Every structure is written in structure tokens, then in C-alpha cells.
Amino acid sequence: MGAGYINLRGKSKRQQKKVGREEEGSSSNRPEVAAFILALRGTPVTKSMLYLCDNQALLKAVKDG
Fold first, then answer.
1. Of 16, 20, 40, 42, which residue is most buried, by most CB within 10 angstroms?
2. Which residues make Cβ contacts (< 8 Å) with residue 34, sequence separation at least 6?
3. CA torsion angle for 13, 31, 54, 44 (degrees, to 10)?
4. Which residue has the higher pLDDT, 13 or 37?
């Protein structure tokens, strides 16, 4: 399974990352968590961020954290 994110805010260049491997199977949360962390790291704390995700475990961890 793989996951990724795209930062559309940047005017000079588009930031894009892909993480994970297909060999991990469809049950691994690591790629999705890694993509979320990379998106957080790429967003200044002074800016709003919209992150769309369909991973229930990640959404629960963010909500409870």
C-alpha cells in the first residue's frame, strides 16, 4: 500500500511526496501516517491546513491526540 500528499498552496512549485511500498499490503497504516506527517511538516504553523483522508485509524488518532 502507498500513500501520498500534494501541497497546492505553494506558488513557486508544487510539493508532492509518495511513501510506502506495495508489498506492505492493504492493512498497513505506516504509509498513511507518514504522508500525514510529511504534510504537517510542509505546512507552516501560521497557515490553515485541510487534509482529506479516509483512514479511520489515522482520523481517530488525530481526534484523540
1. 20
2. 3, 19, 20
3. -40
4. 37
How far apart are alpha carbons 9 and 31 in whole angstroms?
A: 22
Helices (H), the chain: 30-41, 56-64
φ and ψ of 48, to 5 deg: -75, 155
pLDDT band at 62 (very low <50, low <70, confident <90, very high): confident
The CB density around residue 16, as the number of other CB atoms within 10 Å, is: 10
Residues 6+ away with beta carbon under 8 Å from 2: 18, 19, 20, 21, 22, 31
Structural domain harbouring 11: 2-64
Which amino acid, residue 41?
A: R
